[in-house]
Amino acid sequence: MFHDLFNPSVQHALDLAGIFVFALAGALLAVRKNFDVFGIAMLAMVTALGGGLFRDLIIGAVPPAAFTDFGYFVTPLVAAALVFFLHPEVARINRLVNVLDAAGLGLFCVTGTTKAYDYGLGLTQSAALGLATAVGGGVLRDVLANEVPSLLRDREMYAVPAIVGAGLVAVFISFDALNGLTATIATVTAFGFRLLAMHYHWRAPRAWNRRSAVSEDPDANSAGV
Amino acid sequence: MFHDLFNPSVQHALDLAGIFVFALAGALLAVRKNFDVFGIAMLAMVTALGGGLFRDLIIGAVPPAAFTDFGYFVTPLVAAALVFFLHPEVARINRLVNVLDAAGLGLFCVTGTTKAYDYGLGLTQSAALGLATAVGGGVLRDVLANEVPSLLRDREMYAVPAIVGAGLVAVFISFDALNGLTATIATVTAFGFRLLAMHYHWRAPRAWNRRSAVSEDPDANSAGV
Amino acid sequence: MFHDLFNPSVQHALDLAGIFVFALAGALLAVRKNFDVFGIAMLAMVTALGGGLFRDLIIGAVPPAAFTDFGYFVTPLVAAALVFFLHPEVARINRLVNVLDAAGLGLFCVTGTTKAYDYGLGLTQSAALGLATAVGGGVLRDVLANEVPSLLRDREMYAVPAIVGAGLVAVFISFDALNGLTATIATVTAFGFRLLAMHYHWRAPRAWNRRSAVSEDPDANSAGV
Questions:
Q1: Lower CB density within 10 Å: C or N end of chain C?
Q2: Is residue A213 part of a domain?
Q3: Which of B108, B103, B132, B95 is nearest to B193 (CA)?
C-alpha cells in the first residue's frame, strides 16, 4: 500500500492546494462564459473533483473521496467564492494560476496512479487512471461549458507531462522503488515538463497528412486553430 | 433508516409522478431540437433518471434504482410516447408542466438527500447529492442536446429551492427530527420556493463586477444574456 | 451464467475486432474535427470502450473490463495510431468501416445484454443495457466532440438493430434457449438489419405533427435535416 508515500498531513495539504487551483481555473472559465453564481460554483467543483471522481468510480472506491473528505468538498466552493467576488484580480495573476495548475497536474497524476494501483489495477491501467485523474476534471469542465475539451484540440501538450509523471510512477512500482522520494521526483518531473511546454509553446501534432499540409500552407493551419 | 418516511406505495407513486414530469420536459426539448424518436426517448430517460443514477453510482447503490424498478424504467418511455404523438398539446400546457416540474424538484431533493444519508454519507454531502438528484438529469439532458446547461447560466434560481429543501432535510436529520411530516415540510418548502422564484422572476447573480457593470450599463448586460 | 456462450477465445477475438472498428470511427471523427494526437487517441478510446464502461459501472462490475483486460485497453490505441498516420486511406474504405461497425453493433448488443443478465438485472433492463453497450460509446464520442449525438437526431436507425438484437437475446433467455447458436442468430440479425437500414436509407420518424408536415411541404423538412 502506497497510501503513506508522503506524510499524510502533507499529502492532504497538497491535495487541497491542487483542488483549490483546479477550482480557480474552472471558476474563471465560468466567469468568461458569463455563467451565474451556480454555474461558477458547479464548474469549480467539477474541474477540481471530476478527475478523482471518475477514478474512484472506476476502481470501485465508493463513496468517492470527494464525498467523504469534507475538505475536498468545501475547498472548490471557497475558490468559487473568491473568483465570484475578485475575478478580475484572479484573472490578473493568470500566469501564477497556470504555474500552480501545472503543480496540481503533477501531483494528481502521481497520486491517481498510486491509488489505482493500490486498488489492484495493472501498471498500464493505473498510469492511464493517473492521467485521467489529472486531466479528467478539465475535460468535464469543458463539456459542461459546451466547448470542445481543450485537451483534445488545443495542441498544448497538457496530457504529456501527466503521462510522463504517471508513467514514471508505474516504472518505479515495477522496480519496487516507489517511495516518498521517487514519488516527489515523478511529481516534479511532470511539473517541470509542463512549465517547459508552456514556456516554449511546444505543440502536439495533428494527424499526419494535415501536419504535412502545414509546411505547404502555414496560414491554412493557423486559421484552423 | 429513512426508507419509510412516507407510506411506501405513496412514495413510489410520487417518485413515478416526478419521473414522468421530468421526462416530459426532456422530451419537449428533444422535439424543439428536431430530434428523431430515439432522441426523444433518450432525452426523456436521461432527464428523468440521470440525477438518481448519478446519486446511486456515487453511493454505491448498484444496480441503480433506475435499472431495478420496472416502473422507473417504463415511465419515461410513456412520457416520451405522449410527447411524440401529442407534443403541441403538451407544449400548450407548459405552465402546468412547469408547476409539476417544481413539485418533482421538491420531491427529488428530499428523497435524494435521505437516500444518500442512509448510505452513510455526511450531512453536507448528503444534501449535495440531494441537490444533484434533483438537478442532475436536467444537466445531462442539456449536455446531450449540446446546449450549455440552463442550470449554469440562465440565472433562473432552479438550484436554490433544491438547496433549501435538501438543507432542511439535513437540519432535520441533525436534530433527529426527520419523519413523514418534516420531510413533507421540506418538499413543500422547496416546491413553494420554486413557484415563487418563477412567478417573481428572481434572478441569480453573475460574478461580482459584472453585476455592478449592470447598474452602469444595463444594455450591455441584457445583450450578454 | 452465459459467459461461455461462444468459445472464450473466439469471443475475445470478436470483442477486440469490435473495439478496433469502433475506435477507427472515433479516431476518424477526431481527424475531421482537426483534433491533435491526444484528441485522436481519446476519442478512439471513448468510442470503443465507453458503452461497456457505462454498462460495467451500472451493474457494479468494477474495475470495468476496459481497465482489466490489456487487449481491450491497447486495441483502441493501435486503431488511433493507424488513423493518425493513414487516415486518408482509412477514410477511403469508409464503406468497409461502416460494414464492420454494423458487425460491432450486432456483437456488442448481444454480449452487453448477456453480461447485464449475468449480473442479475431483469430482462428488459438487460436489453436496455445491451443497447447502451452498443451505442453508448458513440454518444460519448459525440458529446466530447461537442456535437449533438448522431444517435439522437440523424434518423439513421442506428438504435433499431441494437434494440432488435438485444430484444432477441432477452426473448431467448426467457425461453431458456440462449446458447451459442441463438446468440449468433441475434448478432447476425442485428448486423443484417443495420446493413439493410444503411442500404435502403431507412429513416426514424420525428415527432408526429412534424412528420405530417413533411407530406405537406417536403422542402421545409429537408431544410430541417
A1: N
A2: no
A3: B103
